[in-house]
Amino acid sequence: MTLITLGILLVTAVVTASLIATSLPMQFSATILSKTVVNAEVPSDGDCLDVAVIGGGIGGAYTGWRLRDRGLSISVFEFSDRVGGRLFTAELPVAPGTYLDFGAMRFKSGAHPTLNRTATALGLNIIPFELGYGNADETIWYNRGKRMRNTDLGTTNIPYNLQQGEANDPDMLLWELFKNNVNITDTYPSLEDLFFLSYPGDTGSSEGYKTIAGGMEKVPRTLMEKFLEANTTHKLHLNHQLTRMERRQTGGYNLRFRKTQTVDGVTTPVMTGNTGLTMCARKVVLAAQKDAIQQIDFPEFKNNPEIRRTIDSVEGFPAGRIYLAYNTKWWKTGNPDITHTKSDLPNRQTYDWSTGTNNVSIIMASYHDGDFTHYWRELSQFGTPIPGSLPGVNAVTDVVKNRVEKYLSVIYNVSQSDIPETVGGAMMLWDRYPFSAAWGYFKAGFDERKVRDMIYKPSPSDHVYIVSNSWSADDLQGWAEGSLIAVDAVIQKYFIE
């Protein structure tokens, strides 16, 4: 959906900054704004919230939804003007009927049972994720200047000078390494088997990747909508950044916020006028990434070396995506059955994404991570937005477009001069506060199980909890499921009395 500039909301005598709701339906936007609190006096003990949730991504929205019917006064505080966090969906106007997912774009119903159950309970339309892995030979691999397909593995068609036995399928090579170097003689479990071992209550089988019709952002948006509808005491504070937490002598916490403003997707602090807000809460749930949590001034965390070390136990990896729109699917020329590519070039992966109702087609021209994100960030500082590009933080410049087309031409074996002019584009880089990373990994020397036991409630004497996939098990650090599991664990252990 297009970026919609919302009118100025008046609450008592206070005028908020204009809120720009990215890809939120009008009906949902009105629901949120009608329950958004802009400012308040310093609260008395009797005005304390039961629960303050910091972060309006899927973790924060799911926390509110799980606690919605318990008779608690709950407020969610979000840094930006948008609900969803890294579940971010937008519509490209030049290709109506298409939805671009900039963060989470899919899940597995068997391996991610909590998300599957939640989406079902919300009445969302779960559909197959058709892009990639639909058939055995739909992927082009372009590495070290050579192209190949999956069916080339193990044959004389593989374009590398490999010894006999080295040209096998990578899974077979991994199995040989495993079998020859450990004292396990049986087959080792697949990643999905490991998920089933982790969640023995789930008896589903692999059904391939799934997604949500209309984009993955519908999950947190709908969670937040249901949370707000459940009780008149439930509130959502957009454009508020938590800067400090302090214990109150009478119990609970004073939460000090500064107001922010969002323009074209870029959120910055409001530096003039009365920009502060202090709220009181008996319990605080931090539904945020590691780097964002580390920037909160909370003496009970900052002055405890063990807590600081535990929070810093993971290393984040930035990531990003670039979408380009064309009047023709030029990348299908000579490659009619290819939907997915992988390469060692800076755009790493591509997907034949979708086609609008006006036959304008979109390719995910880059799906990259790590240092390549910094590469694209640097390039994005040059040039001017291309025609049809989303604005602001999601803009694609002509410099970015030309560079990514250079890589696409090599991967798809099409002359760059034969690539038609784009009619639109959009991009998102997850490398800056409050999302300094798209996923993470545990640093060496940490027992992740012990970390999770502590991270949910770092300070035994405080009612402050962390729900985030930053410290999730295995590769759930890169999936929404990790955040939902963390929320469930905290609620089960600390909110059920």
Characterise the protein shown here.
The protein has 497 residues and is of the alpha+beta class. The chain folds into 3 domains: 3-87 and 216-315 and 442-495, FAD/NAD(P)-binding domain, CATH 3.50.50.60; 90-110 and 123-130 and 317-430, Polyamine Oxidase, Chain A, domain 2; 148-208, no CATH class. It has 13 helices and 26 strands. Helix 2 packs parallel to helix 6 (218-230) and helix 2 (58-66) runs parallel beside helix 13. The longest helix has 16 residues, at 480-495.
Spell out the blueprint of helices and strands:
Layout (H helix, E strand, L loop, with lengths): L2 E3 L4 E2 L2 E2 L4 E3 L3 H9 L14 E6 L3 H9 L7 E4 L11 E2 L9 E2 L5 E2 L4 H9 L4 E3 L10 E5 L2 E4 L20 H12 L9 H8 L10 E4 L5 H13 L4 E3 L2 E8 L5 E11 L2 E4 L6 E11 L3 H5 L4 H4 L2 H7 L2 E4 L1 E8 L13 E4 L5 E7 L5 E9 L1 H10 L17 H15 L11 E7 L8 E4 L5 H8 L8 E3 L13 H16 L2
Parallel strand pairs: 5-6, 5-18, 6-14, 11-21, 18-26
Antiparallel strand pairs: 1-4, 2-3, 7-8, 9-13, 10-13, 11-12, 15-16, 16-17, 16-18, 19-25, 20-23, 20-24, 21-22, 22-23
Helix pairs in contact: 2-6, 2-13
